[in-house]
Every structure is written in C-alpha cells, then in structure tokens.
Amino acid sequence: MKLLLDSFWRAAMYCLHPRVMMLSLLPLLLLTLVGGMLGYFFWSDAVEAVRLWLESSGFFSTILDWFTRFGLQGFRAAVAPIVVIAVATPVLILVVMLMVALMMTPALIKLVSQRRFALLATADITPFTFMRNLAWSLGSTLLAGALLVLSMPLWLIPPLIMIFPPLIWGWLTYRVMSFDALSSHASTDERRAVMKQHRSNLLLMGVIAGFLGAMPSLIWAFGAMAAVFAVILLPVMLWLYTLIFAFSSLWFIHYCLAALEQHRAAQTAAAVIPAQAGIHSEQLKEIEHA
Fold it and tell me: What are 76-83's contacts with CB under 8 Å, separation 24+?
C-alpha cells in the first residue's frame, strides 16, 4: 500500500510538469482534426439516420411522442445527436487510449527513468519490442472495445453505466499500462514476475483509473445543452481523458519501476546470501581441518 500511495502522489505531481502538459495536447490535436473531418463529412447524415431509426422504432417513437406531449420538443430534437455522440465517444476514447500508449508512454517512461531511476538497468530494445508492445495494446484495446459494445445495452440501467465502463477501462488500463511501463526496463521473466506479484494492486490502480476516466462523461449530464455545445465540449472532454490517461500512465510507471527495482534487489539478496553462506561454510571447514 505504501508503494501504491507513493506512486500515486508522484504521478499527480508529474502531471504538472510542462513536458507532460504539452504531451497531453498532442493526441488531442490529432483527434480534434480527425473528429472535425468526420463530423464535417458524416455528422448530418449520422444524426438523420439515427433520427429516422428512432422514429421508425415503435418503442422509441412512443417515448419521443411522450416527450412532445409534455412540452419537451427541445429534448426530442436533441435525442438523435446525443445518441450519435454516445456511440462515437467510446470509439474516440479507445483511440485516445491507444495513442497515449503509443505516443505518450515512451516519453513519460524516459522522463521518469531519467529523473528517478537513472541507475535502473534497461532491457534490450529491438524493433520486435515495439511490435510486441503494439500487438499487446491493440489486442487489449480491441477486446475492451468488444466488451464495451456488448455491455452498452446495460448502460440504460442508471447504476450500471457507472460500473461496467469503469471496470472495463480499469482492466484495459491495468493490461496496457503495466506492460508498457515495464517493457523498456524489464526482461520477459521480470515483467511476468512483477505483474504476478503485484497483480491485485495493479488491478486496483486500473479500476481507480477507470473510475477517474469516467468523470469527463459527466459533461453529458447537461443533456440537450451539452448536445448544443458538443463541438466545444467534445475536445475538452477528450483532453481530460488524455490527461487522466497520462496520470494513469505515470502512476503505473512509478509503481512498476519501483516494484522492478525492489524485485531486482530481492533477487540479488537471494543470490548473495547463499553465496555468503557457502563462503562461511568453507571457512569453517578450513578451520576445523586446521
């Protein structure tokens, strides 16, 4: 627990570092450009398609008529944009997560290792290392995306929308961030040993990060007003997601590198003690023989 809390506060302080703040803006700029292009070409068609689908559905059409009957025409008009945003947001968040892992994490690992773990030996980096990290991140992200899509019908139940997405994000964060934090310093055996030894804490960190990642979604609690300002709010929300992911990455980096340092110290001590015992045994034998 001491290591978990220490790495938490260190990560929070590192988020104020100018380099971290600048790095948090890079994925946002690219995603804003991509999102703007997609919105320019597909927003109207997507909203119109969702509106027609809602009105053709007997169940949703009844609900929309109920809104009109009670004078909520403005909310009825905002339902289709809200649905489009709700569907597009998880996809954009997954892209942010992947971009943080690929773009920010290596730079953050370098920053932390230079400032705190300068004496910690690094592993051999090869082109295969990058491909392995990419495959791990892609596989974990696709699996998390599938779980998000499958769980979306359950989001209609108010309590579950605050449970399932954070849990899925927590699992994804634990998988991706732990692997990336150790990839540049730990060997395969060391990485497996550290992740196995600290699995409960790492999973807890991932779940906490998952709940933190759900906080920017509260922007959409403003309903129709949020839909009106979606063009402004969506980039702000994505930047918040990116900053939270950066904090999560720093949290895992501080924790995993410190855990790796402890693991190596324990391995060295375990190797030195038998060797010292052997030396003392030989010395005792020599004394008895003399």
Answer: 77/224, 78/223, 78/224, 78/227, 78/228, 79/51, 79/54, 80/47, 80/48, 80/50, 80/51, 80/54, 81/47, 81/227, 81/230, 82/220, 82/223, 82/224, 82/226, 82/227, 83/50, 83/54
